[in-house]
Amino acid sequence: MIWSNYHGHSHYCDGKGAIEEYIQEALKQGMETIGISSHAPLPFETLWAMPQERINEYINEIVLLKKKYEGIIQVYTGLEVDFIPDMIGPEHDSIKQLLLDYNVGSVHYVDQFPDGTHFEADGSRQGFVKAIDEIFEGNIQKLVKRYFELVRMMLKTSTPTILGHLDKIKIQNTDGVLFDENAAWYRDEMMHTLEVLSASGIIMEVNTRGLYKKKCDATYPSLWVLKEAFKLGIPVTINSDAHHPRELTGNFEYAASEVKAAGYRVTSHLWNGKWEEKPLG
Ligand SMILES: [Zn+2]
Ligand SMILES: [Zn+2]
């Protein structure tokens, strides 16, 4: 089985550990390719994004490490880029001008509170409940639908290389109180999003972070979504969204079994600078 991971953070953002520690861990795990994807800078203050003034240092460090590890492990320069309409996205000029090998496009923010604060959909439950009331007229469906609308908008207008944690919004619903993933409206939103994803050719990640952080009992996205994605021919890659080197391949065996159960026999890997499909083993 070939493992790779293209979604990993570092001390440049809210991750722990130096980039080289992730590479060392990747070597220990027998990986032949690794991508680093710290949170790209945002045009407002956050506790987790990389400060704008560190972006060049970040990229230069990866470029040096690429050379240092040439012939030993393939190292790729990435970023996890937020999508916020008219503000930032994978195809924003501030991202396009950087020498990246790829990016992971993710929706974390879903509109703003009346005071202008950006609402983080995978933040605290308290903030989520407040957003239902203050932004979405007390209607959880409106919130969830808007989240998926933003994912589709990103896929169509600010295309990423990899779609990050497609249904991470379910992290707020592990007790099943807020919405039902089997409800027709939710499935419709998901299917509509998968159709857009399929038409785009973008790779979907299967993200294990919720599992090893014990925040969710499934991958992002869920198995039923993976089954539909397989039918639609959407390519997938298994990522851990590591925020510490020890998380680099967290729950990968489980994710691989899910991907196989969905019907896949290959996953996508960045190999000698090109995306290639390799057997799942
Ligand atoms: Zn993310
Ligand atoms: Zn991430």
Question: Your description of this structure?
Answer:
The protein is an alpha/beta fold and 281 residues long. It has a domain at 19-105 and 159-174 and 202-279: Alpha-Beta Barrel (TIM Barrel). The protein is 34% helix and 17% strand. It has nine helices and ten strands. The chain has a six-stranded parallel sheet with strand order 1-2-3-6-7-8. The longest helix is centred in the middle third of the chain and has 18 residues, at 140-157. It starts with 18 loop residues before the first helix and ends with a strand. The model has no long low-confidence stretch (mean pLDDT 97).
Characteristic terms for this protein:
alpha/beta, 281 residues, globular, binds zinc ion, TIM Barrel, 34% helix
Strand order of the largest sheet: 1-2-3-6-7-8
Distance between the amino and carboxyl termini: 5 Å
Sheet with most strands: 6 strands, parallel
Query: Per the principal axes of the C-alpha atoms, what is the gross shape?
Result: globular
Q: Could you outline the blueprint of secondary structure elements for this entry?
A:
Blueprint: H1 19-28, E1 33-39, H2 55-68, E2 74-82, H3 93-96, E3 104-106, E4 109-112, E5 118-120, H4 125-134, H5 140-157, E6 162-163, H6 184-200, E7 203-207, H7 209-212, H8 223-231, E8 236-239, H9 252-261, E9 266-271, E10 274-279
Parallel strand pairs: 1-2, 2-3, 3-6, 6-7, 7-8
Antiparallel strand pairs: 4-5, 9-10
One zinc ion is lined by residues 7, 9, 80, 241.
